[in-house]
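Structure tokens please, single chain.
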Amino acid sequence: MVNFPSPGEAADRERVRFAYGPERYAGLAAVKKQYNPANLVRFSPATRPV
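Here you go.
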């Protein structure tokens, strides 16, 4: 499930990218980079800053 990935699912970056799709994943990563550049809020490690 995309909204609540298990630790194994969240660790597989390619699987997460596939689940969101390239455009949506890039948008999520850009937002995370802007608002959380130090990765202090990391409830889901699936989307890492670019």
